[in-house]
């Protein structure tokens, strides 16, 4: 975990897994004037270097937007940056500090959760074909879970997701290689361990047979519960 002089404690971990490239990316930027830290996590669409580059570009552009401008402005900046490239696309979630908590913006199936030291509450809603049909009372096919309906390159501003993180709470950002491999209950159990939560989530996703890149970023962790378990899972070295 890291702690900036005036910012939150945070940490990130990522692994390529069985894919050819790691098309996930994270970024954090501290405003030198306000000391506010903006976080982003991106998941490239596909298993190509262009997807990896799009994710890096999008995350880097999003965190450079001042928190006062809001998540929609950060997503728009990421979109402009990605569209300057000839190819490549990604999903993206950005978290900006506001009133002691965070404001969130996202496209695609990356997620943000609030962490209270015991349980996780999902703050984002997946922009996938599966979620589209589920909200209309229909049962989606497994493949629909992986078909996104918005991306950084293609989303219209009206399609940007928006939410707020409650206060006080920790913040967890994940790519689908984590949250579509591990249940929310399993993720919360790992976070109760007195260790590097982001690394444990990525390690566990790979150990559980994850077939995708796996990435997690945690910030402003809530205090550990008294008497929390201290046994760690067997370590899997990220690829």
UniProtKB/TrEMBL annotation:
Has the keyword Hydrolase been applied to this entry? yes
Start and end of every PPM-type phosphatase domain?
A: 9-221
**What keywords appear on the UniProt entry?**
Hydrolase
Does the keyword Hydrolase belong to this entry? yes
TM helices/strands, residue ranges: none
Q: What is its EC number?
A: 3.1.3.16
In its UniProt record, a GO molecular function of this protein is: protein serine/threonine phosphatase activity
Q: Mind telling me what this protein is named?
A: Protein phosphatase
Can you name the source organism? Amycolatopsis viridis
């Amino acid at each position: 975990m890291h702690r900036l002089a005036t910012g939150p404690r945070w940490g990130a971990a990522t692994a390529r897994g069985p894919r050819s490239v790691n098309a996930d990316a994270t970024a954090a930027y501290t405003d030198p004037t306000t000391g506010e830290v903006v976080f982003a996590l991106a998941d490239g669409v596909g298993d190509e270097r262009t997807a990896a580059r799009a994710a890096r570009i999008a995350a880097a552009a999003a965190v450079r937007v001042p928190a006062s401008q809001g998540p929609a402005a950060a997503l728009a900046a990421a979109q402009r940056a990605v569209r300057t490239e000839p190819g490549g696309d990604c999903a993206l979630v950005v978290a900006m500090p506001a009133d002691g908590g965070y404001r969130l913006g996202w496209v695609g199936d990356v997620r943000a959760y609030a962490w209270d030291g015991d349980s996780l509450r999902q703050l984002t809603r997946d922009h996938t074909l599966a979620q589209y049909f589920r909200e209309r009372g229909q049962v989606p096919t497994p493949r629909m879970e992986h078909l996104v309906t918005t991306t950084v390159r293609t989303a219209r501003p009206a399609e940007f997701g928006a939410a707020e993180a409650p206060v006080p709470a920790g913040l967890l950002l994940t790519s689908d290689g984590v949250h579509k491999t591990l249940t929310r209950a399993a993720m919360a159990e790992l976070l109760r361990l007195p260790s590097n939560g982001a690394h444990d989530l990525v390690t566990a996703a790979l150990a559980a047979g994850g077939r995708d890149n796996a990435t997690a970023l945690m910030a402003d962790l809530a205090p550990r519960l008294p008497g929390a378990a201290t046994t760690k899972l067997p370590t899997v070295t990220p690829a």
